[in-house]
Amino acid sequence: PYDLLVVGGGPAGASAAIYAARKGIRTGIVADRFGGQVMDTVSIENFISVQETEGPKLVAQLEQHVRQYEVDIMTNQKAVGMVPGSSTEVQLENGATLKSKAVLIATGASWREMNVPGEQEYRGKGVAYCPHCDGPLFKGKRVAVIGGGNSGVEAAIDLAGIVAHVTLIEFDDKLRADAVLQKKLNSLPNVTIVVSALTKEVLGDGNKVVGLNYEDRTNGEMHKVDLEGIFVQIGLLPNTAWAKGVIELSPRGEIVVDERGQTSVPGIFAAGDVTTVPYKQIIIAMGEGAKASLGAFDYLIRSSVQ
Ligand code: FAD
Questions:
Q1: Which residues of this UniProt protein bind FAD (predicted)?
Q2: What is the pTM of this model?
C-alpha cells in the first residue's frame, strides 16, 4: 500500500503530493484530470510572485514539479468509493482498488452554471465565476452578478468598488443574503437590484459579452441589460458524492476538516476547494494541500501501522 494516496490532481493535490514525497514516504496521486479547475482558467494574476500566467501553463509547471519526485501519478481515474481501515481502500470507476495508510482528498469543486445560451461560448470572455480572480478585469465597466445569496451579494459589494455599475439579478422575490450584507448593498449608489428575474441568455458580439436577457417572473416580460461582464454566483458544488456517508460533510456537501486538514475519520485528510475552508483560490488550495499533507505525515509517524 501507499503511505499517502492523494485523490485529486489540482493545486491542492499537487502541493500535498510534493510535501509528502519530500518526506520520503510512498506517495501516489490519482486524479480524473490533472490540473483541475486551473485547466479551465485563461489568465491568472493573483498567484503571488507570478505576475501573470495562464491556466494550462501553470498546470504544466505543477506536473513538472510533481514529476521531480517519486510520486505515482495515475490520471484519467475517478474515485467512486472509499472504505476506511488501518489501510484505507479507494475504489476506482474502472473496478480497481488502491490501498493507503493515509488518504488525502483534494477533489475540488465546480461552479454551478446557469445553463443558458451564450454562457459556455462567452466563458472567460465576459462570463466569470470568481470576483477575486476576474473583478479587476472589469474596472470601470458594467457587470451583472447572478444570484442573491451571500456569495452573490458579497460579490456585488466587492465589484461595486471596482466597476462602474453592478446589476444584481435574483431568481426569488427577495435576496437570501444575511441582513447586514443586504444593508450594505442597499447603501451603494452604483448597484441596481432586480428580483424575480430569470436569466435567459448571455448576449455577445462574437468576441465578448455585450449584455444579457432576463425574464421578469411576475409578468413574463423580457428585459435586456447592456453590460460587459457577468459573474455567476449560484453555488459551488464540492466533488464529494463519492465520499458521502464515509466522512462528515457540511450541509453544503463540503468536507469538514480541522486545522491540520484531518477529517472526521482518522487517517483521512482533505484540502482545497472540496473542504469547508473558505475562499476558494489557487494559492489557498496549495497552502491547504501542504498543511494537510504535513498533518497526514504527523498521523503516519504516530500510528502503529507499519
Ligand atoms: P480543483 O482544481 O477543482 O482540482 C480537483 C482535482 O480533483 C482535479 O484533478 C479533478 O480531476 C480531481 N477529481 C475530482 N473528482 C474526482 C474523483 N471522484 N476521483 C478522482 N479525481 C477527482 N483561483 C485563483 O486563485 N486565481 C484565478 O485567477 C482563478 N481563476 C479561476 C477561473 C475559473 C474559470 C475557475 C473555474 C476557477 C478559478 N480559480 C482561480 C479557482 C481555482 O481554480 C480553485 O480554487 C483551485 O483550482 C482549487 O484547487 P483544488 O486542488 O482544491 O481543486
A1: 3-18, 263-273
A2: 0.95
